[in-house]
Amino acid sequence: MKRLVALALVALMSSAAHAALDIGERAPDFAIPAALDGKVYKFSLAEALKKGPVVLYFFPAAFSEGCSVEAHEFAEANAQFAALGASVVGVSGDDIDTLSKFSVQSCQSKFPVASDQTQSVMKSFDAVMQTRPEYANRISYVIAPDGSIVYHYMSLNPMKHVEKTLGALRGWQKK
User: Fold this and answer.
1) Element (H, E) at 152
2) What is the pLDDT of residues 52-97, one digit of tens each?
3) Using CA atoms, how far apart are residues 22 and 158, in angstroms rounded to an integer?
4) How far apart are CA 71 and CA 76, in angstroms?
5) Model pTM?
6) Residues 6+ positions from 60 with CB-CB distance below 8 Å
7) Cα angle 169, 22, 45; round to 5
8) What top-level class would CATH report for the domain 2-174?
9) Which residues of the chain register pLDDT less than 50?
């Protein structure tokens, strides 16, 4: 029985590891409600890409421990992303009122977080958590200004997403 459970876990993990858009694919465009510094507006990926690369990260739930840590890490690194010409946006299935508060507290008013309650954006980016489909998986994308995916990183551990996406941006700029 233990072996069967272990095999099932390995199968689940390996399928989750491949559940991301491929490098070079075009990022699906979207426009959804977002909050920055507590103010609600409509975030458009196409508009953000006109200004430079975008780091799009999906997170399961505002104010959960891991998501708060990850948002804090992105907020602390915001100047580094800006120095590379990139902007950051987080997306979850939380309602916009919750994200409005989260944008001030955990995101420190440094980047927007967007509400995808219908999960249409999550689904288009293969970012729905397989084990808990009511939540977004923790996955980060780096998207070039032409709309192509240049990097993705998936891990429920919130600690490496900033480091990995900054490294990918630096590598992309060197090309």
Assistant:
1) strand 149-154
2) 999 999 999 999 999 999 999 999 999 999 999 999 999 999 999 9
3) 21
4) 9
5) 0.88
6) 66, 67, 92, 129, 132, 135, 136, 137, 138
7) 60
8) alpha beta
9) 1-18
